[in-house]
Amino acid sequence: MKKRIYAGMLLLAVSGVLIASLANCCVFYSQAARVTRADVRERVGVFGNGPPDAAIAAFPQINPAAGDGLRVSVIAHDGTVTYDNTVRAETLPNHSDRAEVKKALESGAGESKRFSDTLRDETYYYAVKLSDGSVLRAAKTTGSIFSMFAMAVPVVFCVVLVTVAAGNLIAGKLTNRVVEPINNTQADTVITPPYDELAPFVRAIASQRKRTVEQLDDLRRKTDTIDAVMDNMKEGVVIVDGRGIIMSANKSARGIFETDANASMDGKNILELLRDADLLKNMRNALSGQSCEMDMERFGETYRVYFSSVTGIGAIILFLNTTERMRAEKMRREFSANVSHELKTPLTGISGYAEMLVSGMAKESERTAFAGKIKDEAARMIALVDDVMMLSEMDEGRSPRNLDDVDAAAVAREAADALAAARENDVSVEVTGKDIFLKANRAMIYEMFHNLIDNAVKYNKPGGSVKVSVAKDDGRVVISVSDTGIGIPEEALGSVFERFYRVDKSRSRKTGGTGLGLAIVKHIALALGAKIALESRSGEGTTVTVRF
Question: Are 138 and 131 in contact (CB under 8 A)?
Fold first, then answer.
């Protein structure tokens, strides 16, 4: 803008000088031509209708080189030149075709002007008719307007140079004075127009800036929302272009590719981070417009990978962690197999005893014993089914209902009194604590104590003991069940809370355990928001602590 203003002002100054010079030349030339014509008319006009001799006497012979002298000729009515004060008359051609001569013969006076062949000179002719019918003609030559321009060029050139020099200085200062207020305008503040003429422009800028700020804020909010959603997704998301170059990847994807969670993967080829032939094949299919999917294992985790084409961009790759689902499916299969196996044993016994009773193979004295065994096996099946149903309900994630203020110590005593196994195995059970209340479902608390004490009795030694403690620690209810039993080997400590896991399978079969007791305890603790801990040494006993 500054250069344009500067160039415009300089061009205006130079153009003004040239136009003024041209106008002056035209004015001066017009004035000079008017003076010349008046002089010629005045000097020749006095001889109109006069004798030729007087005219000839008034204009004697002159040197043609005199320059601007007046040339006078006497022309007969037939066009023959009878006298000329600059050259010999007989050398001149007939002048009957001259315009000024024709007009003089017709009306008594005539004039005309003619340029030389080079257009450098202009000659003015004026003729009057004499008394004898001849014509007196005078001619005076002056420079043409073109010659006047040519003479003015050096002066005009000098004036232009002076104007350019002065204009360079003045135009620069004026340009700075005009542009400086505009340059000093702060775009990040309320814009005040430096000139009234710029007010519409400033309003347009302010309106456009407001729209731009709103659009940027909206775009920033959308971008932040997308980034927040992407980074908080458990699923890994990677967007690649048509060459397999990563355009965007969220935090979960960076973890899958074993890169720094804060480092950017943008701009890298996906094969630099994960060399997998199936991944490359499916990505190429997605880039060609074909959606596909595959399974992939990475660092002990299982992923279901989905490839989808994105028109105009490339492809999007979604990594869905299916490890827990696969583990859950495996647990369900194992659970089903274990339940089937656990049910098959008592069913086989019941079927065998029943068949012997039906076929009459059992003696009369053995029938009561067989019926008792059938009853025991049926009771074991019922206990197993009850435990499975309870675990199924807990697996559904239902929140505990019928929460009341439960006296945990009283429930513990009730559960201990109900366990006949303690008396059969000569194991003493001691419950300590009184008036220790917690907000819970009473049936679940009873089931927890029943399973913990039952396990402590069954896996104890003859004459052993079980101590059940219900106390408060820092405002929290803490339940502890300790026994002096066979203990748990160190390698089995991480598995005892799994379903159907038994440390001593022969003892479990003998005592009628289902292998679900501790699994139920763990689920009850989780449902009530408690934490469970286990301490044990093989041959020395076990302590289970539940902290609410």
Answer: no
Beta bridge partners of 129: 135
Question: Which two structure tokens, joined as six digits, stand for 255?
Answer: 């973890």
Angstrom distance (rounded) from CA 482 to CA 465: 8
Please say whether the beta carbons of 314 and 284 come within 8 A. Answer: no
The separation between the first and the last C-alpha atoms of the chain, rounded to the nearest angstrom, is: 78
How far apart CA 61 and CA 135 sit, in angstroms, is 18
**pLDDT tens digits for 159-192?**
777 777 776 777 667 777 666 666 666 655 666 6
CA-to-CA separations, 537 to 229, 491, 522, 541, in angstroms, rounded: 48, 11, 20, 6
pTM comes to: 0.40
Q: Give the CA distances from residue 381 to residues 387, 388, 455, in Å, rounded to whole numbers and listed in that order.
A: 10, 10, 18
For residues 75 and 79, what is the distance between their CA atoms, to the nearest angstrom?
6
- Of 68, 64, 21, 20, residue with least CA distance to 40: 68
Tokens of 516: 């679900």
Which residues partner with 430 through β-bridges? Answer: 467
Q: Are 74 and 82 in contact (CB under 8 A)?
A: yes
What token pair was written down for 340? Answer: 């089937």
258 in Cβ contact with 268 (< 8 Å): no
| H helix intervals, 108-250 | 145-183, 199-232
In the block, tokens 């205006």 appear at 12
Instruction: Find tokens 């990563």 and name the residue.
Output: 246
Asked whether 303 and 295 are in contact (CB, 8 A), the reply is: yes
Is residue 74 within 8 Å of 55, Cβ to Cβ? Answer: yes
Query: Residue 492 gets which letter from DSSP?
Result: G
Higher pLDDT, 193 or 70: 70
